[in-house]
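Re: weekly structure request thread

Next one in the queue (294 aa):
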Amino acid sequence: MSRAGATPMENLISLLDLEVLEQDLYRGNSPQSEWQRVFGGQVIGQSLVAAQRTVDKSRIVHSLHAYFMRPGDPSTPIVYTVDRIRDGSSFATRRVVAIQHGKAIFSLEASFQVEEPGLEHQFEMPKVVPPEDLPSLSQMSEELLASAPEQIKRYWRRDRPLEIRPISLAHYLSDEKLPPFQSVWVRPTGPVPDDRIVKASVLAYLSDMLLLDTTLFAHGRSLFDPTMQVASLDHSMWFHRPFDFDDWLLYTMDSPNTNGARGLSRGSFFARDGRLIASVAQEGLIRERRKQPG
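Done, posted below.
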């Protein structure tokens, strides 16, 4: 829950610091907001924290796979149960179920590995406009978003723990059908503790931002379109390399497919120096609402 006088980043760190109820049982709260359901990135981040707390610190998360089952109620705490599925010599596996009102709303499985050397390669980071040459949030609000719908203005003007600088805002300013690609620079608005558990959870939190919206670019729609029913269905993430939050990260996203009222999107996080630090994939519901008979 948000603390009076705290910064958005301080509130996020507090949000991820779960209350211990019993062994392998945790409780997390939600910030008070105008949203009618819990932000998916919050449940991903809190579930990862719950799982990591049951694993030896020498084992670092390398992947997670999750399903969203029901919308979360932001007015009610979430209880997280952890199942210690396996502890091997190199890997550990955990399963987490998030519960509200006696029902599962989300499940996550995560794998943790003792760090070891190995073969390395990665895709190169795309060449994009650096964050310093892009408009700040205040500039976006005053200049580029002046003619945008009110709900889009509210979204970008909202206080958040992360600053986002999109490479392009064309998607929010027109209903033109665009190629299903987008890139944004992101960085925290405040200090993040030098703790790999916390950093991985913060990255998992922000990985759910904007990703699903990419599936709508090719159709001239957006998350704010009242004719669309949009929700995350699943979420996978792979953590490749250690990183810090002391500089901007580039988040590149694309959508290779939409069909059957579902859209698939993929994302990559790059450090400023070009290192690929994490990959993401998500499928979401993108259903056109049926028109009511007049």
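The domain at 135-294 is CATH 3.10.129.10 (Thiol Ester Dehydrase; Chain A). The helical segments are 8-15, 40-52, 137-144, 150-157, 170-173, 196-207.
Next request, please.
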